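Following up on my earlier message about adenosine-5'-triphosphate. Here are the inputs again, as you asked, copied directly from the submission form:
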Amino acid sequence: MLENLQLWYQHGWIRAIDLSFAQQLAKQLEDDQEAVVLLAAFVSYQLGRGHPCLDLAQLYAEPEQTLGLPPEHASVESLQACELPQQLLCNVAGAESLESAVQVLLESPAVNNDNSPLVLQGQRLYLRRYFRYEQQIKTDLAARMKALQPVNLGQLKHVLDELFGTQQTISWQRTACAMAMRSLFTIVTGGPGTGKTYTVVRLLATLQKLRGQPEPLRIRLAAPTGKAAARMSESIGNELLTLTSIDDVKADIPTEAVTLHRLLGTLPNSRSFRHHKDNPLHTDVVIIDEASMVDIEMMAAVVNALPPRARLILLGDKDQLASVEAGAILGQLCEQAEHGHYTPELTEWLNATTNVALPTDKTDASGAEWPYLQHTTMFHESRRFDPNKGIGKLADEVNRQQHVWLEQWLQDSDAMAAAHVEFDNIRMRAVPRPNHQSVQQLVEQGYAPLLKLIETRPESRNAEEIDVWAAKILKQLEQFQILTAVREGEWGMHQFNQRISYWLFGDQAAEHGWFEGRPVMVTHNDYSLDLRNGDIGIVLRREPNEPLRVAFPTTDGTIRWLLPSRLTQVDTAFAMTIHKSQGSEFSHTVMVLPEHDVPILTKELLYTGITRAKQQFTMVCAHPQLVLKAVRRRIQRSGGLANG
Ligand SMILES: Nc1ncnc2c1ncn2[C@@H]1O[C@H](COP(=O)(O)OP(=O)(O)OP(=O)(O)O)[C@@H](O)[C@H]1O
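Thanks, got it. Here's what our run produced:
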C-alpha cells in the first residue's frame, strides 16, 4: 500500500506531505493498521483539496470522484503505473467497505484517543487540528445564535420604515436588517449585485440607531483578501454617500475595511494571531464580506478573537466556489437557504417588524432542524443584471443546473447573438485550438488600453504623478481578464500566460521573466513583505532608465514599489484560474475551458467564473457541449458544521 502511495506521489497524484504523513503513521502503528494509514493519507490529501475532513460515505460511494483521482493532468504512463483509489481500497485489509473501514478506525489507537492524530465523527474522518477548528466554530456560533437580544419591535419597525420606506411587497433586505438585531450571528447571502452592501449599510445604521447606549458601537469591516477589503471599503463608502436618512449616525459607520489577517494581527513566523481569546478584539460588531472565501482555520481564529458579546455578520455568495484552503464554511452554513426553513416563531417575530408578511412557503414547522438558517437571509434579485438576459440569466441558469436555455446559447455565434437580445453581453467562442487567431485578437483588443496606458508614463520625476499613473494602470487591470478552469495543459493558466506574454510583448517576454507590463499575482502569503496570496501587482519602470519594479496597490490608495528580486512566489496574471479570481470582478471576463472533461469542471466553478463579469462575458472552448457536462456536476462539500 505504501509503495502504491509512493507511486502516486512520484506521478504527482498526491503531495509529499500526504505520503510522509502516511509513512510516519505506518511507523507508529502495527502492520494490521494498513487501512488506517491509507485513509489517513486520503484525509491529508483531501485537506490539500480544500476539504477539512474525509467523508467516508462519499469516498465509498464514488472513490474516484470524491478524491478527484486520477488528476486532470495524469499522463498515460501514470495511469498504467498507478492503481486507482477503488482498486487500492479493495486490496487493503479492512478498507474494502464503509462498514469495515469504520470498524477498523474505531478500534485503532490512532483514532479518537487523547491526542491521537485522527478523529472519527460519525462517518467523517478528520486530522485532529481541523476537527478542533470545526468544533470551535460550531460551539461559538451556537452561543451567538442563542444569545437573543432584547428588541423593541415598534422602534425597529419605525427605523426600518425610515430606511426602506413602506413596502407593498416583501423586502428581503429589510428582513436581513431585522434578523441581525435579533441575535449575535447573522448571514446575508446572495449573488453579485443583489444588494448585500446596500443592506449592510442600512443594517449598521439600524444597529447604531437602536444601540441603547450613548457611545457608538465599535464596528470593524473585514474581508479575506486585500482586494476584497478594498472593494468593500469602496462600495460601503459609495453607498453611504447616497443615504440621507441616517445623518444622525453616518459618522458612526466606518468605511475602511481591512484584511482578516490585519484585523486579527499577524505575528511573524506564526500561525497564531495577536488577538485571541485572552486578548480579544475591541469591537462590538464584525462584518466579514466575501465570506465564501474564508477557510476553516481563519474562521476559527475569528471566533476565537471575537468577544462573546460581539455580533458577527457574514456576507457572501453561498453558491460560489469555496475557499482555496480547507473549509466551505459559508456553503455549509447556508445550505438550503433558498427555501427559508424559518420556524413559525421566527416568522411571527419577523412579521412583527414589517407590514408585509413573509411568503408562507419560507416557513417550516421543522425549521429548528436548520439552526443556521434561522439567522440567514438570502437575496435572489440582482439589481445589476437583468435576470432574463445576458450575464444575469446565464449565471442563474448555470446555478440552477438548467439546460434548455443553455443549449440554445451553446450554439451561439455572433449571428445568433445579434438575433437574440438575451445573449447581448455573453458570447460563446468555440475555437479548435487555444492559440487560434480569434483568441489572439480577443486578447490583443482586451489588453490594448492597458498597453496604451503604460506608454503614458509621466515625463516628470514627480513621485505623486507616477503613483497616479501606476494606480490607473492597476485599475485598468480590472477591465479585462482571462480566467482558466485548469492550471496545466494547453488550455491552462500557465500556457495561456506564456502565449499572451508573447502576443503582447514578443520575444522579450520569453527571454526575460520580468518585463514592463507583466501583471503578477502573489501565490503565497509573505508576511515580511505584507503581501497576501492573491494580491495583484504590475511590473513598471518609474523612469525609463530605472530598474523594473512591481507596483502594488495599498488599502490607503497609495502604491508600493517592490524590486522583482524580492518576490519569489508570483505567477504572471494575464490569465488566472477561476479559483484565484474569487473576490474580484472584471468588466470583461473571458473564461477558458479545457479541451476534455475533468472533475474540476462543476457548476460552482462556471458560476463563479461567470459572476466575475460586470459588463461582458466570453466563453472560449473547443467543445461547447462540455458546459452541459460541467453544469450537471456539483461540488461535494465535506464538513460537519451543519450536522452533528
Ligand atoms: N433596494 C434597493 N433599491 C435601490 N437600489 C438598490 C437596492 N439594493 C441594491 N441597490 C443598488 O444595486 C447595486 C448593487 O447593490 P450592492 O452593491 O449592494 O450589491 P452586492 O450584493 O453588494 O454586490 P457585490 O456582491 O457584487 O458586491 C448598487 O448600486 C445598490 O445601490
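One observation from looking it over: The radius of gyration is 26 Å. Hope that helps, and feel free to reply on this thread.
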